[in-house]
Amino acid sequence: MKCHVHIIHPSDIVRLGIENIIRSIPLVQVSSYLYFKDFTYQPNEKNLVIFDKDYLDDFYDITKRHNGKLILGICINTGNKIIGKSDVKCVKLDIGENELRELVKHELGLTGKSIGKVEQNSLSAREVDVVRCIAKGMSNKEIADVLCISTHTVITHRKNITAKLGIKSASGLTVFALLEGIISGSDMSL
Protein backbone atom coordinates (compact mmCIF):
# COMPACT_ATOMS: atom_id res chain seq x y z
CA MET A 1 0.00 0.00 0.00
CA LYS A 2 1.27 3.47 -0.89
CA CYS A 3 2.03 5.92 1.90
CA HIS A 4 1.16 9.60 1.75
CA VAL A 5 2.25 12.18 4.33
CA HIS A 6 0.24 15.40 4.48
CA ILE A 7 1.84 18.34 6.32
CA ILE A 8 -0.56 21.04 7.50
CA HIS A 9 0.96 23.96 9.35
CA PRO A 10 0.47 27.75 9.23
CA SER A 11 4.23 28.46 9.27
CA ASP A 12 5.99 28.16 5.91
CA ILE A 13 9.34 27.51 7.58
CA VAL A 14 8.00 24.68 9.75
CA ARG A 15 6.00 23.16 6.89
CA LEU A 16 8.89 23.24 4.41
CA GLY A 17 11.38 21.96 7.00
CA ILE A 18 9.21 18.96 7.85
CA GLU A 19 8.54 18.35 4.15
CA ASN A 20 12.28 18.31 3.44
CA ILE A 21 12.86 15.74 6.19
CA ILE A 22 9.99 13.47 5.08
CA ARG A 23 11.04 13.55 1.40
CA SER A 24 14.19 11.66 2.40
CA ILE A 25 12.09 8.58 3.25
CA PRO A 26 11.84 6.26 0.23
CA LEU A 27 8.39 5.23 -1.05
CA VAL A 28 6.57 8.08 0.70
CA GLN A 29 4.65 10.78 -1.17
CA VAL A 30 4.51 14.21 0.52
CA SER A 31 2.00 17.05 0.22
CA SER A 32 1.90 20.22 2.27
CA TYR A 33 -0.91 22.63 2.95
CA LEU A 34 -1.40 25.90 4.77
CA TYR A 35 -4.92 25.01 5.94
CA PHE A 36 -6.75 21.79 6.74
CA LYS A 37 -9.49 22.67 4.23
CA ASP A 38 -6.94 22.09 1.44
CA PHE A 39 -6.18 18.52 2.63
CA THR A 40 -7.14 15.82 0.13
CA TYR A 41 -7.72 12.32 1.47
CA GLN A 42 -6.07 9.62 -0.67
CA PRO A 43 -8.48 6.63 -0.46
CA ASN A 44 -6.12 3.85 -1.58
CA GLU A 45 -3.13 5.00 0.44
CA LYS A 46 -2.05 5.08 4.05
CA ASN A 47 -2.55 8.72 5.05
CA LEU A 48 -0.42 10.28 7.77
CA VAL A 49 -1.24 13.87 8.68
CA ILE A 50 1.35 16.00 10.47
CA PHE A 51 -0.40 19.11 11.72
CA ASP A 52 -0.22 22.07 14.09
CA LYS A 53 -1.97 21.67 17.45
CA ASP A 54 -4.47 24.38 16.47
CA TYR A 55 -5.82 21.99 13.81
CA LEU A 56 -6.59 19.13 16.20
CA ASP A 57 -10.38 19.55 15.89
CA ASP A 58 -10.08 19.65 12.09
CA PHE A 59 -8.12 16.38 12.23
CA TYR A 60 -10.85 14.67 14.24
CA ASP A 61 -13.50 15.99 11.81
CA ILE A 62 -11.59 14.47 8.87
CA THR A 63 -11.18 11.10 10.60
CA LYS A 64 -14.90 11.02 11.42
CA ARG A 65 -15.77 11.87 7.83
CA HIS A 66 -13.69 8.93 6.58
CA ASN A 67 -14.55 6.59 9.48
CA GLY A 68 -10.93 6.73 10.65
CA LYS A 69 -9.83 4.67 7.65
CA LEU A 70 -6.10 4.76 7.07
CA ILE A 71 -5.64 8.19 8.65
CA LEU A 72 -2.89 8.56 11.24
CA GLY A 73 -1.94 11.78 12.97
CA ILE A 74 1.13 13.45 14.41
CA CYS A 75 0.42 16.74 16.17
CA ILE A 76 3.13 19.38 16.42
CA ASN A 77 2.82 20.95 19.86
CA THR A 78 4.69 24.13 20.75
CA GLY A 79 3.83 24.12 24.46
CA ASN A 80 4.48 21.81 27.38
CA LYS A 81 0.86 20.69 27.72
CA ILE A 82 0.05 17.29 26.22
CA ILE A 83 -3.03 17.52 24.07
CA GLY A 84 -5.15 15.14 22.04
CA LYS A 85 -6.19 11.57 22.48
CA SER A 86 -4.13 8.41 22.36
CA ASP A 87 -4.76 7.94 18.63
CA VAL A 88 -2.71 11.06 17.83
CA LYS A 89 0.99 11.23 18.56
CA CYS A 90 2.00 14.62 19.93
CA VAL A 91 5.55 15.79 19.46
CA LYS A 92 7.28 19.03 20.34
CA LEU A 93 8.32 21.39 17.60
CA ASP A 94 11.98 20.92 18.52
CA ILE A 95 11.92 17.18 17.66
CA GLY A 96 15.14 16.04 16.00
CA GLU A 97 15.34 15.26 12.30
CA ASN A 98 16.17 11.56 12.75
CA GLU A 99 13.60 11.17 15.51
CA LEU A 100 10.85 12.62 13.28
CA ARG A 101 11.91 10.46 10.34
CA GLU A 102 11.83 7.31 12.51
CA LEU A 103 8.45 8.26 14.00
CA VAL A 104 6.94 8.72 10.54
CA LYS A 105 8.39 5.40 9.34
CA HIS A 106 7.01 3.70 12.46
CA GLU A 107 3.54 5.21 12.03
CA LEU A 108 3.45 4.15 8.37
CA GLY A 109 4.65 0.65 9.20
CA LEU A 110 7.93 1.01 7.32
CA THR A 111 10.11 -0.07 10.24
CA GLY A 112 11.03 -3.70 10.66
CA LYS A 113 10.48 -4.27 6.95
CA SER A 114 13.11 -4.24 4.32
CA ILE A 115 12.29 -1.22 2.23
CA GLY A 116 14.28 -2.93 -0.52
CA LYS A 117 11.72 -5.73 -0.68
CA VAL A 118 8.93 -3.18 -0.98
CA GLU A 119 11.02 -1.36 -3.54
CA GLN A 120 11.54 -4.42 -5.68
CA ASN A 121 7.76 -4.64 -6.02
CA SER A 122 7.36 -1.00 -7.03
CA LEU A 123 10.31 -0.70 -9.42
CA SER A 124 10.19 -2.81 -12.54
CA ALA A 125 13.09 -5.16 -13.24
CA ARG A 126 14.30 -2.83 -15.99
CA GLU A 127 14.16 0.17 -13.65
CA VAL A 128 16.29 -1.75 -11.15
CA ASP A 129 18.76 -2.41 -14.00
CA VAL A 130 18.84 1.32 -14.79
CA VAL A 131 19.41 2.19 -11.10
CA ARG A 132 22.26 -0.34 -11.03
CA CYS A 133 23.88 1.27 -14.09
CA ILE A 134 23.42 4.80 -12.72
CA ALA A 135 25.04 3.72 -9.46
CA LYS A 136 28.00 2.37 -11.43
CA GLY A 137 28.50 5.87 -12.88
CA MET A 138 27.27 5.23 -16.42
CA SER A 139 25.90 7.99 -18.64
CA ASN A 140 22.49 7.70 -20.31
CA LYS A 141 24.15 6.65 -23.58
CA GLU A 142 26.26 3.99 -21.85
CA ILE A 143 23.17 2.65 -20.07
CA ALA A 144 21.31 2.52 -23.39
CA ASP A 145 24.16 0.57 -25.00
CA VAL A 146 24.49 -1.91 -22.11
CA LEU A 147 20.74 -2.56 -21.83
CA CYS A 148 20.12 -2.46 -25.61
CA ILE A 149 17.49 0.27 -25.35
CA SER A 150 17.28 3.81 -26.70
CA THR A 151 18.58 6.83 -24.82
CA HIS A 152 15.01 8.17 -24.77
CA THR A 153 13.86 4.99 -22.99
CA VAL A 154 16.64 5.41 -20.42
CA ILE A 155 15.46 8.97 -19.75
CA THR A 156 11.87 7.73 -19.38
CA HIS A 157 13.01 5.06 -16.91
CA ARG A 158 14.92 7.71 -14.94
CA LYS A 159 11.81 9.90 -14.77
CA ASN A 160 9.75 6.94 -13.53
CA ILE A 161 12.40 6.06 -10.93
CA THR A 162 12.46 9.66 -9.69
CA ALA A 163 8.65 9.71 -9.46
CA LYS A 164 8.57 6.45 -7.50
CA LEU A 165 11.48 7.10 -5.15
CA GLY A 166 11.61 10.87 -4.95
CA ILE A 167 15.39 10.68 -5.49
CA LYS A 168 16.59 13.01 -8.24
CA SER A 169 20.38 12.88 -8.20
CA ALA A 170 22.70 10.14 -9.39
CA SER A 171 24.52 10.26 -6.05
CA GLY A 172 21.21 9.80 -4.22
CA LEU A 173 20.36 6.80 -6.41
CA THR A 174 23.84 5.39 -5.74
CA VAL A 175 23.31 5.60 -1.98
CA PHE A 176 19.86 4.05 -2.40
CA ALA A 177 21.28 1.20 -4.52
CA LEU A 178 23.99 0.51 -1.93
CA LEU A 179 21.54 0.54 0.99
CA GLU A 180 19.05 -1.69 -0.78
CA GLY A 181 21.63 -4.21 -1.98
CA ILE A 182 21.12 -3.48 -5.68
CA ILE A 183 24.89 -3.04 -5.96
CA SER A 184 27.80 -3.65 -3.64
CA GLY A 185 30.65 -1.25 -2.96
CA SER A 186 32.95 -3.26 -5.23
CA ASP A 187 30.59 -2.74 -8.21
CA MET A 188 31.17 1.01 -8.27
CA SER A 189 33.79 2.61 -10.48
CA LEU A 190 36.04 5.19 -8.87
Give a brief rundown of this model:
It comes from Tenuifilum thalassicum. The protein has 190 residues and is of the alpha/beta class. The chain contains eight helices and five strands.
Topology:
Blueprint: E1 2-8, H1 12-22, E2 28-33, E3 45-52, H2 56-65, E4 71-77, E5 88-92, H3 97-107, H4 115-122, H5 125-135, H6 140-147, H7 151-165, H8 170-179
Parallel strand pairs: 1-2, 1-3, 3-4, 4-5
Helix pairs in contact: 5-7, 5-8, 6-7
| Superfamily (CATH H level) name of the largest domain | Response regulator
* CATH fold assignment of the largest domain: Rossmann fold
Distance between the termini: 37 Å
Order of helices and strands: EHEEHEEHHHHHH
Shape: elongated
> How does the major sheet shape up?
5 strands, parallel
Ranges with pLDDT <50 over ≥5 residues?
113-121
Strand content: 15-25%
Radius of gyration using CA atoms only: 19 Å
Query: Looking across the biggest beta sheet, what order are the strands in?
Result: 2-1-3-4-5
- How many structural domains? 2
- What would the average pLDDT be, to the nearest integer? 81
**Count of β-strands:** 5
Look at the structure and give the CATH class of the largest domain.
Alpha Beta
At CATH level 2, the architecture of the largest domain is: 3-Layer(aba) Sandwich
Helix content: 40-55%
Q: What is the count of DSSP helices, taking H or I runs of 4+ residues?
A: 8
**Structural class by SSE content:** alpha/beta
